[in-house]
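Agenda item 2: FE2/S2 (inorganic) cluster complex prediction
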Amino acid sequence: MFVNVRLPDGTVHRLEALEGWRVMEVMRDWGLPIKAECGGACACATCHVWVEGDWVAKLVPPTDEETEMLDGAFQVDERSRLCCQLIMTPELDGLEIELAPESLSDQPVETVAAGSAG
Ligand code: FES
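Presented output:
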């Protein structure tokens, strides 16, 4: 299964994902520059993404903890999620998300992943 991630520079990266993995871990493991400072503990909001289109409704709703943490992020709207709280399941194959600019780290994009989709 795959996750499609748009970076703030407009490039889209199609990343292979495994069931049970956090979307944040998938991005990090493929070398995308995501801050994710707390390492997935729902304690930093530097893994803020916007979920595209109909995918919002397919996700498990955020916990109170996630909603509270998102309050501290910038440009939060109804598409906002912390991607360390999104667990990959077969239903999410093809998930499309955009990384919020404040969650972008300085590290260069290393991924060659499964190829960039444009
Ligand atoms: S990595 Fe810190 S909240 Fe997601």
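Discussion summary: The mean pLDDT is 93.
Owner for follow-up: CH.
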